[in-house]
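yo

u said u wanted the structure for the complex thing, so here. seqs first:
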Amino acid sequence: MDSSRRTLLLRGAKLMATAAASQTGLLENLSLLAQSPAMPGMQHTQTATSPAGSSVPSRPWLHPERLARFVDPLPIPQPLAARETRPHPHQTGVQIPFHRIAMRRVETRIHRDLPPCRIWSYGNSAPGPTIEARKGQPTLIEWANKLPAQHFLPIDHTLCGAGRDIPAVRTAVHVHGACVPPESDGYPEDWQTAGQSLTALYPMQQDAATLWYHDHAMGIERLNQYAGLYGFFLIRDEQEDALNLPRGKYEIPLAIADRFFYADGQLHYPESPDPEAPWISEIYGDVILANGVIFPFLNVEPRLYRIRLLNASNSRAYRFTLSNGHAFHQIGTDQGLLPAPVELRELMLSPAERADLLIDFSTLAGTEFTLQDEVRAIMQFRVSGATDPEKPQSAVKSSGVPAFLRKVDPIPESAAVRTRTFTLDEYMHPKSHVMLMLLNGQYWHDPVTEKPELGSTEIWSFINTTQDIHPIHLHLVRFQILDRRPFDVDDFLNYKKFEFNGDAAPPEPNERGWKDTVKAHPETVTRIIVPFEGYTGRYVWHCHLLEHAANEMMRPFEVVAPSKQA
Ligand code: C2O
Ligand code: CU
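structre next:
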């Protein structure tokens, strides 16, 4: 079939062979884009077809608006305590905490009025158990794949790394934001199939932060994460301890993820109309889960809470607000504490981004309001009426928001030894409307072109030629955002001319800390500055819209030992 994605990929591969073989840069990309079938300005066709058209009889959909609201309590993913220790693999005589986490098919409650939902989990629910680690304390985790032999979501075998010749069920656990040796990072091709397991070492030589873990198996990570394979991984340190932030029941990890369901409460992952190539470019589920539950409520006391918010969706970005207009403070980003709290009434998070928040309910006793995405309710907060009589209101208030959090020194551009420039591209086949996404016009299997030296600092500059925000994530490292500057996409795509058409904007106040995922805005050049620290070896960087990453918007990079002359 001429219009199949595979044919398109092959055709596209030929077209780009020259550019991919050379050291790519801005100029090569100009000619590449001019020859490519890119259609600037083209919007995605949001496909959400039912299984109708295939031989499967169509099942009725769940209509979330018909469900009772705020009848289920918000589940809090339980912290996992390490009960065992094991010898450190590289340090004789040192015992370190050891966890064993199995991935299994389980049933979980997503709403009071729905039957249990079949999911895949690292525990009993999604998010899975919360892993707690301390800076400086290496930790071992054995990840055991005890999943069924067959997948229950639609695999697209035409995608890279998802062929029919390999096991359908594969997992590769990645701790997003962790600085770990390559063999423990969950490289997409280093997967385990049902019955296998892998023990990974997490050295934890990094600052306190809200990390998370999720599946990363090549070609099916979007299905595995959608099935429920994600959870929180919190790192604490002394600097954070000293701030005396809300702990225990006043600290809430909160993962937001959208899904589609059938009326019987089972997960549905939408498919393209082509049963041979069911991949679709993005999904925007009509149900929004908070810690795995539809429209939950949380009883809170009129005091300060710490909410660690994670966007665990495949594609959907959120614009979070509180329905009563109440302001809150962001104290941390993906990679830990900001220099100082940032007051917000609205917070935008793309997939994989985290925001560490302080919400002060002390002036809201006896009220109810919702956390919403724009105007759409996700969950409800119910603030109890009275403060603890032992503690006067003023005392509660005074354990307030710290004025200073930690020092974050901006890295000067002069610290960078080189700048790499990448285009973020979407190619739409004019007839089939099948799309693929690429980083710098290169495919996953093209030779590794990014080989930063360990200990060096580089600027990475992303030229987003599309209409989408692509959240770009680099494994292993943390980075700072330098700026974002709009450019003329039509000139660039059609006339090979590169011109900025606006001023460079500094990162938003709540982005002025360490990040590991950056929103690359449409028709904008986004620049980050990255110290490559930690380990040598092969890692990946990719768009964190999981549907994009599965269709070639992911590339390897390799950190190499510093060269001798220097
Ligand atoms: Cu959140 Cu490559 O991962
Ligand atoms: Cu993308």
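The pocket of copper (II) ion (ligand 2) is lined by residues 437, 468, 470, 543, 545, 548, 553 (CB under 6 Å). Residues 47 and 452 are 39 Å apart (CA to CA).
cya
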